[in-house]
């Protein structure tokens, strides 16, 4: 009886920790989502208006201070949440459309085509996501929010495609797939009724992880001048503008940095929580 109690205690602790991970992730991401939606209707100040002194410290009028042009920094950080979420969602949507399509195609394809697609995925994955995104942005010959989303979506699609191919092949090796083929089910029916529902839990975790990667990559592109151009208040551009005054007005770099880190951590915690929900082996160990 004592041994049973001792076994239940760690199990309960693990279950509590996993629930807390998911809850914290949802709270962090939810706060950024609410702020992003709020900026569509209201912001404390006009993001382009010079409403205070240059590089003013945080105060009741300007919660995060002002930048080198006297614009309210908190307003720009709020708009940065909307831009980061837009880029993350857009990039993941493009990556899912391309990656899942090609991954499923590779799983069903002939050996030669499968090997070609697998090799393509591996080659693209060998390049850093940021480098591929920079190449795509350079190819479009213009830096814009759309080009950043497109570039990141294409760069991430190889990771999604490779994972989809592996998962789909695993599902296609199951006995019930053989039974479905014997019963005369079409390939399209097998994909939508058997393959996608079974690989979706794992893919959703990967999407959450890639969401965070896309946010960091977009901030890096904006820092290098290849992301959303002014007056879009990207966190990366705010960090780039604050680097020259980081010693005299450090909050100009600290505030957008905290916002960026909190959203990325929130997405990672959300991914961990989704993994615990979707993995039956983890549920069994609770």
UniProtKB/TrEMBL annotation:
Coiled-coil spans in chain: none
Compartments in which it is found: Cell membrane
Predominant cellular place of this UniProt entry's protein: membrane
The organism of origin for this protein: Chelativorans composti
InterPro entries documented for this protein: BP-dependent_transpt_permease, MetI-like, MetI-like_sf
Residues spanning the membrane: 20-42, 83-109, 116-139, 145-164, 207-226, 247-271
PROSITE patterns: ABC_TM1
Family: Belongs to the binding-protein-dependent transport system permease family.
ABC transmembrane type-1 domain mapped to chain residues: 81-271
Membrane-related topology note: Multi-pass membrane protein
Keyword match Acetylation: no
Domain of life: Bacteria
Keywords, in A-Z order: Cell membrane, Membrane, Transmembrane, Transmembrane helix, Transport
Protein name: ABC transporter permease
Classification via Gene3D superfamilies: MetI-like
């Amino acid at each position: 009886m004592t041994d049973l109690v001792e076994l239940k205690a760690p199990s309960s602790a693990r279950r509590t920790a996993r629930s807390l991970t998911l809850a914290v992730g949802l709270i962090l991401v939810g706060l950024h989502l609410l702020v992003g939606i709020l900026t569509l209707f209201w912001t404390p100040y006009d993001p382009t208006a010079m409403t205070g002194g240059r590089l003013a410290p945080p105060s009741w009028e300007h919660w995060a201070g002002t930048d080198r042009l006297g614009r309210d920094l908190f307003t720009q950080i709020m708009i940065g949440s909307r831009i980061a979420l837009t880029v993350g969602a857009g990039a993941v949507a493009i990556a899912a459309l391309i990656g899942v399509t090609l991954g499923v195609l590779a799983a069903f394809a002939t050996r030669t085509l499968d090997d070609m697609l697998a090799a393509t995925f591996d080659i693209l994955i060998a390049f850093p996501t940021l480098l591929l995104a920079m190449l795509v942005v350079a190819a479009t010959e213009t830096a814009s929010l759309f080009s950043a989303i497109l570039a990141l979506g294409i760069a991430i699609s190889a990771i999604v495609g490779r994972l989809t191919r592996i998962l789909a092949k695993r599902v296609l090796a199951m006995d019930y797939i053989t039974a479905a083929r014997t019963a005369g089910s079409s390939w399209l029916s097998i994909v939508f009724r058997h393959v996608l529902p079974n690989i979706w839990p794992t893919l959703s975790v990967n999407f959450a992880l890639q969401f965070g990667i896309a946010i960091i990559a977009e901030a890096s592109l904006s820092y290098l001048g290849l992301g959303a151009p002014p007056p879009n208040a990207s966190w990366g551009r705010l960090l780039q503008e604050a680097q020259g005054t980081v010693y005299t007005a450090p909050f100009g770099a600290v505030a957008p940095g905290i916002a960026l880190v909190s959203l990325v951590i929130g997405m990672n915690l959300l991914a961990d929580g989704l993994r615990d929900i979707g993995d039956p082996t983890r549920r069994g160990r609770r």
